Amino acid sequence: MTAITPELSPHIKVWWEDLTVGEVRDLGTISPTADEIVAFASQFDPQPFHLDPEAAKHSVFGALCASGWHTCAMAMRLMVTNFLHESSSLGSPGLENLKWLKPVYPGDVLRLQHTVTDKRAMSSRPDVGLVRTVWEMFNQHGDKVLHMEGYGMFRRREPAA
What we know:
The protein is α+β, with helices and mostly antiparallel strands and 161 residues long.
């Protein structure tokens, strides 16, 4: 098997070694429409307050709002588009903390912030490092609507001996 090296992967701009604890990235914005909210909910979370504006008026949310899973999917889209596609990302072993803090409504402008909180080499895979991060999504008012914590796996530029 051929190792993935910087020379063999010129599209990779960020390797495990390049990520530093305390580093914060602004990963852009996204704004869901009512049609997108309903389309996502129709397929993945068909609850009335995600599907029907009239039913949503009578819910605790007071209006049509995005599924929390849709909010996570929008965060993932920003993460891939504005960071992971040019990194040595190898996926994630999972999340440890996920909170939907405020509802997301049609037309909200959501901004994703990504903070590196810890990193370590994997002892079982000398070519891979783990990076612990916090993902925070804010609406146009500065209210935090999403908080996620977890690990990402990144290929190392220089595998451990």
